[in-house]
Amino acid sequence: MKNQNEAPEHAALEQASVRQYCKTVRVPAIGANFVSLAEQAVKENQTHIRYLEALLQVESEERDRHAIANRTRDAQLPRLKTLEEFDFGKAPQIPAAKIRELAEGGYIERSEPVVLIGECGTGKSHLATGLCVAACRQKRRARFTTAAALVNELVEAKQNNQVRRVMARWMKYELIALDEVGYVPLADIGAEFLFQVISDRAEKAALIVTTNLPFSEWTSVFPNPRLCKALLDRITDRAHIIETNVKARAADAPRHGGKRTVSFLRHEQIYQSDVVFRTGNAAFSGIVPVPSSR
């Protein structure tokens, strides 16, 4: 006659063996949940296939959570801010529907830039961070940085003969959010590095830029007019341009290469700048002046 303690001991050994196999094949969520899911399967009279499906589902969901957490950590966000936390009711000039459309990630797949223009405190960085978080939730590789930090990293890399390696690392990101462009004037080498990063991503990978300056004033940051023009050509080509501190409306934008650029700033004032930059086959003027916060 079997000892009455043999059954629970045998079950414990089986469970320990299953957990060890789960550890070996690296399915920790199954190892942590197979007992409770088995009990649930018995209570609900589930089939073996349904039980297996439940095991795989819990493992898949756990892997998704880890992947999103890792992507969010690697993005190096200054602080975690989501689009759900952004109060569009207090910023009616910002097109909420457009921001939510961008959050779906289509612009990343199409390698289109997003430009957020406005004074300090109008939500540019929050929106850029929120779009990065949205990309991370889609398990995309994103990275948030300031223009000054990126330039400093590349200048240091030049001193160590590592520019090519650093540039290659930045190109691996599906999305880069470049914050505070225009806050600090750049030396020639810094401007050239920034141009190189943006130029390398043109039509290849998505970019978000936040700036407190209208395009007509970018020469104060990029004193070389040819470089400034070339930089704006790449940033505004097929770009989604959103102003955060002046009421804007959607309107037709110029075509470039047969594709329509999306902009929320094409009103009559946009063409009043003295400086006109050419994007593709259409003239693109500096945006209606925004009072500088500097």
Explain this structure:
This protein has 294 residues and is an alpha/beta fold. It has 2 domains: 6-70, no CATH class; 75-285, 3-Layer(aba) Sandwich (Rossmann fold), CATH 3.40.50.300. The chain contains 10 helices and 9 strands. It has helices at residues 6-24, 28-43, 48-74, 96-103, 106-109, 124-137, 147-159, 163-171, 188-201, 225-236, and strands at residues 113-117, 142-146, 175-181, 206-211, 240-243, 255-256, 259-260, 276-279, 282-285. The strands form 3 sheets. It has a 5-stranded parallel beta sheet. Strands 6-7 form a two-stranded antiparallel ribbon. Strands 8-9 form a two-stranded antiparallel sheet. A hairpin with a 2-residue loop joins strand 8 (276-279) and strand 9 (282-285). Mean pLDDT is 83; it is low at 248-294.
Give the second-level CATH assignment, the architecture of the largest domain.
Answer: 3-Layer(aba) Sandwich
**What is the name of the CATH superfamily of the largest domain?**
P-loop containing nucleotide triphosphate hydrolases
Number of strands: 9
Strand order within the widest sheet? Answer: 2-3-4-1-5
Radius of gyration: 26 Å
What characteristic shape results from the CA principal axes?
A: elongated
The total count of helices amounts to: 10
Low-confidence stretches: 248-294
Short description:
The chain is an alpha/beta fold and 294 residues long. The chain has helices at residues 6-24, 28-43, 48-74, 96-103, 106-109, 124-137, 147-159, 163-171, 188-201, 225-236, and strands at residues 113-117, 142-146, 175-181, 206-211, 240-243, 255-256, 259-260, 276-279, 282-285. The protein folds into two domains: 6-70, no CATH class; 75-285, 3-Layer(aba) Sandwich (Rossmann fold), CATH 3.40.50.
